[in-house]
From TrEMBL:
InterPro entries: CheY-like_superfamily (IPR011006), LytTR_DNA-bd_dom (IPR007492), Sig_transdc_resp-reg_receiver (IPR001789), WalR-like (IPR039420)
Protein's name in the database: Response regulator
GO molecular function: phosphorelay response regulator activity; transcription cis-regulatory region binding
All copies of domain Response regulatory, residue ranges: 2-117
Residue positions, PTM 4-aspartylphosphate: D54
Pfam families, alphabetized: LytTR, Response_reg
The keyword Phosphoprotein is assigned to this record: yes
PANTHER family documented for this protein: REGULATOR OF RPOS, RESPONSE REGULATOR RECEIVER
Species whose genome carries this gene: Duganella flavida
Domain annotation HTH LytTR-type: ranges: 157-259
Cellular component terms per the entry's GO annotation: cytosol; protein-DNA complex
GO biological process: regulation of DNA-templated transcription
Length: 259
């Protein structure tokens, strides 16, 4: 069994990892995240079996991360970790999803580990997506993304192209891809750059027209020609009239299940 621990306080990550070594020595902690965005990226890359999510983290909260995972093909087992009793009083006590109050005692952690081992032993006992969605809704997190943006979708993008500044109509965009400091905007005649992070950009786009297929890639649906699997078993998006193919991460493969 492989685990990820996400907490914005390093000493609490280390404390929980130490406690887990005592009560579940065969569990291997393969990743440690300091915020929700890091956690989501590491989960996507390393596919842990269990994730321990601090509820209050910068960027994305533990609830936000869980909401993103609930629709994936094989979501990990989730344990929420919180220092705030108000989150746990009713919602968690009556849910199939487990939680830990900081700092987790050995006795309480042993109960959580016993539950996790039982779910692993009997796959059918894993928490179904509907149960996690219900819990997230009770806690005020949107388990399923809204079908339309809260505000008017983005219509124009001001982007840098060499020494020029271009005004690009959103209909011209083929896909967006994030880099270290910039987000690349690909259109028919080339690539331009914007400073808007892809997580913020996603909030401004019409999700019926633009599909996120990877934590670093959003593609315009109108430019998707189809999908295929490469020799490594990864799902790849093929674009109309373009040679490049875009990797679909495991958290987004359900988007193409019918293709």
């Amino acid at each position: 069994m492989r685990a990820l621990i996400a907490d914005d306080e390093a000493h609490l990550r280390e404390y929980l990892e130490g406690q887990l070594k005592s009560v579940w020595p065969e569990l291997r902690v393969i990743a440690r995240a300091a915020n929700g965005i890091e956690a989501l990226a590491m989960i996507d890359e390393q596919a842990p079996d269990v994730v321990f999510l601090d509820i209050r983290m910068p960027g994305l909260t533990g609830l936000d991360v869980a909401a993103r995972l609930v629709g994936s093909a094989k979501p990990p087992h989730i344990v929420f970790v919180t220092a705030f009793d108000q989150y746990a009083v009713e919602a968690f006590e009556h849910s199939a999803v487990d939680y830990l109050l900081k700092p987790a005692s050995i006795e309480r952690l042993e109960k959580t580990v016993a539950k996790l081992k039982a779910r692993v032993a009997v796959p059918a006992a894993a928490v179904p997506a509907v149960a996690l969605q219900a819990l997230l809704a009770q806690l005020g997190a949107a388990a399923v993304p809204a079908t339309a943006p809260a505000s008017a979708p983005l219509q124009w993008i001001r982007a840098s192209h060499g020494e020029e500044t271009r005004l690009i109509a959103i209909e011209e965009v083929i896909y967006f891809q994030s880099n270290d400091k910039y987000t690349s905007v690909f259109v028919a005649d080339g690539e331009s750059l914007i400073r808007t992070p892809i997580s913020k950009l996603r909030e401004q786009l019409d999700e019926q027209q633009f599909w996120q297929i990877h934590r670093s890639v959003i593609v315009a649906a109108r430019h998707v020609a189809g999908t295929r699997q490469d020799f490594r078993g990864r799902l790849m998006v093929q674009l109309k009239g373009r040679p490049e193919q875009l990797v679909v991460s495991r958290n987004y493969v359900d988007l193409f299940r019918g293709m």
